[in-house]
Amino acid sequence: MAEALPFEDVAPVERAESEPALHVDVDGFEGPLDLLLELARRQKVDLHKISILALAEQYITFIEEARRMRLELAADYLVMAAWLAYLKSRLLLPEPPKGEEPSAEDLATALALRLRRLEAIREAAKKLGERDWLGREVFARGAPEPVMIRRDAHYEASLYDLLKAYARQRQIKLNAKVSLHKRNVWSLVDARDALERLVGHLSDWTTLDTYLMQYMVEPSMRPTVLASALSATLEMVREGKLTVRQDEAFAPVWVKPIRDTAEAGA
Amino acid sequence: MDDTEDTVDETPEVSKDDVPSVPDHREATRIAEALLFASAAPLSVDDLAGRLPEGADVGAILEDLMALYADRGVHLVRVAGRFAFRTASDLAFVLARNVVEQRKLSRAAMETLAIVAYHQPVTRAEIEEIRGVATSKGTLDTLLETGWIRLRGRRKAPGRPVTYGTTPHFLEHFGLDAIEDLPGLEELKGAGFLEGRVPPDLSVPVPSDDQALREDEDPLDHDELFQPLSIDEGGTGGE
Amino acid sequence: MDDTEDTVDETPEVSKDDVPSVPDHREATRIAEALLFASAAPLSVDDLAGRLPEGADVGAILEDLMALYADRGVHLVRVAGRFAFRTASDLAFVLARNVVEQRKLSRAAMETLAIVAYHQPVTRAEIEEIRGVATSKGTLDTLLETGWIRLRGRRKAPGRPVTYGTTPHFLEHFGLDAIEDLPGLEELKGAGFLEGRVPPDLSVPVPSDDQALREDEDPLDHDELFQPLSIDEGGTGGE
Fold first, then answer.
1. How large is the ipTM?
2. Are A74 and B239 an interchain contact pair (Cβ–Cβ within 8 Å)?
3. Nearest partner of A52 among A110, A117, A101, A97, judged by Cα
4. Which of A24, A66, A175, B191 has its CA 20 to 30 A from that of A100?
5. Chain B touched by A76 (CB under 8 Å)
6. Out of B92, B132, B185, whose CB is closest to A137?
7. CB count, 10 Å around CB of B55?
């Protein structure tokens, strides 16, 4: 599209006063058809009675003027100019006998129709634009009250989820216990050594507990000492080195070494 | 229910039975009024029927409400085949003052919108043919963005160009009940300006914003439906 | 609006004075109606006075409009000293729709629920001790919302912390006949929920969801029973 014209500032008054004076400025037009429509309006006649010949001449003059002023013109303006020049020559020359091509009159009529159609849709656009627009002349409720969605939350959870969650908690505790407490352990090896030392001195029944007292000074050692000692004792019984006796549940455990094979069977 | 009531006046013996339904009509009218007032968007008869008490005569209720509000500051109007409360248009002079800034459509956009409205379904090439100038992509994008026009489908023609049409939102915005209510439509039709685009055998020389595609339209491709703004028809290029 | 006029006509001595202003009053009422309808926020008397024709009696106009809409689906109401149209409160139901939403409990909520179930009656501090992490108020609120846990009472201990327990609804949801049916640690291990050895001192207290308070529980204060969600135990602070 063309730039603003250099003489635009020079003669603004003239332009306003004498409308027909052709103002060469393509900027204001929406393409060649729009320009043609504007030129046709300047003929101040009904579009039905428009002289296409005169219009073509005016258009060509306009374009020539614009080119003389070295305005950059979009190609479609030039294409239209060339086509109008062709139409003009056809209209001026005597019409050849009916051929394949449409006659010059038909072409002119088609152009006039196109102009009228553009004019008509312009008129429609204007009417549309003049209607009451929502938000411009006419208004909807400014504070619409939305449909309140009452959300009844329905929670989903299965017993499996519940148990898993609980187990997860407890498992953490479980693992934590193992790592936190360093347990004092009287190992089976310790127990075996201690028992063998004991058996070496023994000749008759004696309570295991009495002997083990020395290893249970620390109260926390009591369960592990008793457990390991009992295991070691049973191990030695199995090996035939010891015999064990307990009179009733929770009563003291008595041990006695076996010196010969005859007693071992008893 | 109220149908019955109206006819009822002529047949008194039935009307006794219907007496209890009178407050129902009143109540249904109140509910319809509340629903229409509460909604910014127009409501269809079906919308209303679904929310009103069983058997309510939606048509009669709407007529009552329209009459009730006829000379008030707020009117019940039909737009896009639906119903909505709108401020009376003669009060625009007071209300327009609080319009912050109405986006103005350029002349090109307004013309393009008119062409889409009156000639729909219409392709970009057809719009350009009527205006005699290339249509910039921005113009169509602007119109798509307003929500007033939409991509309808693709013309069954070489190049399968996209066809454009208007939306219910367009009707709502311009206060039209149906596309046939476009101003000056008869004149355009009478002058034959709406013909001659589509092949004569298919031509229906009236605009149609019907959701259904015409015989000469194909549906859009799947992804076009979800990204309408990003579509490039590979068209004629900008101005 | 016509109602208003009628009332005016009944008082002739005033009506004479008002005769020239009657059409103005009508028009001003229409304008006020439209302004109130179109406004996004409630309007004050001053707001309206600034937009209505000079000399309009805003107070009278508002009274007229209020009376006009009094038994309609929409009311003109005063909110915070301003005026706005609102759906009649008795029709609130037409604007409401119930939606059932499926939600999943967060892991934290699920764990908290499990601890409440197994260790009830349990205080928030105890839950936190077992979980080894602070419990957010939101988690307990969510659980209260599910209807699966409830506030039982207050522990007879310094600070009188609230005790939580499960509800019959909890049993119902999880398909338990009684709270004692919750599997113990050995059973959990058997079912593969727990791995490794379960030390004997890691036991589960026998949960009780008995309605009756335990000896170490006090009843809740009267108002807590009705606003369980708003209770703040003044607890350990959220996560």
1. 0.59
2. yes
3. A110
4. B191
5. yes
6. B92
7. 13
